[in-house]
From TrEMBL:
GO terms for molecular function: L-methionine-(R)-S-oxide reductase activity. Pfam families: GAF_2. Residues 97-185 form the GAF domain. The lineage of its organism: Eukaryota, Fungi, Fungi incertae sedis, Chytridiomycota, Chytridiomycota incertae sedis. SUPFAM superfamilies: GAF domain-like. Belongs to the free Met sulfoxide reductase family. GO terms for cellular component: cytosol. This is GAF domain-containing protein. It comes from the Eukaryota.
């Protein structure tokens, strides 16, 4: 069992907040455990860190959508297999571990904020989801969204880490940097041999 010491999260210092989150994530993530267990703990860590006093940022959803590559048993593919996969239709992202209200279970690649981040392998920072064409509304309370892709070293998409906020402009570049650091830890630990920094615009 992995425990982390209880700490007071700084409410008005995002670099300090994410430095603490990063150290706690390092303590929590265990490569010997199934990937789903690590993803579940990270979703819970961030959800409650954002929402507990004194931070209270009204983050209403934190979780993962995973690609078929994330659960593949092979850690490498042959050139022939890669070429065939490139020509085949991409299966949708599938709901993974999360904290929040009931969510969409499947998201097509290229659709919505999550699907767009997946298709482009780049981070999406949406300040107002109601004015973002093609937004998929799983929770009507969401007003802004941050999605960071999980990308393997060979370019394979593993999934996305999705965060929703009830406030307009609920995320900024400091959040992008902080969340991306956690994603990098997960990719390194949960998909060994394919470590690569998360894709950020």
């Amino acid at each position: 069992m992995h425990d982390i010491p209880e700490s007071a999260y700084p409410a008005n210092d995002k670099p300090a907040f994410y430095a603490l989150i990063h150290s706690q994530a390092q303590a929590l993530i265990d490569p010997s455990l199934p990937t789903v267990a690590n993803l579940a703990n990270i979703a819970a860590l961030l959800f409650y860190a954002y929402n507990d006093e004194p931070v209270s940022r009204q983050i209403n959803w934190v979780g993962f959508y995973l690609s078929s590559a994330a659960t593949a048993t092979a850690t490498a593919s042959t050139p022939t297999a890669s070429a065939a996969a490139a020509d085949a239709p991409q299966p949708p992202l599938t709901l993974g571990p999360f904290q929040g209200r009931i969510a969409c279970t499947l998201i097509p690649i290229g659709k919505g904020v999550c699907g767009t981040a997946a298709a482009s392998r780049s981070t999406m920072l949406v300040k107002d989801v109601l004015n973002w064409k093609g937004h998929i509304a799983c929770d009507s309370r969401s007003r802004s969204e941050l999605v960071v892709p999980l990308v393997a070293g060979d370019g394979r998409l593993l999934g996305v880490f999705d965060l929703d906020c009830e406030l307009l402009d609920g995320f900024d570049e400091e959040d992008v940097s902080g969340v991306s650091g956690v994603v990098d830890l997960l990719v390194a630990a949960c998909w060994p041999g394919v470590n690569q920094a998360s894709a950020v615009n």
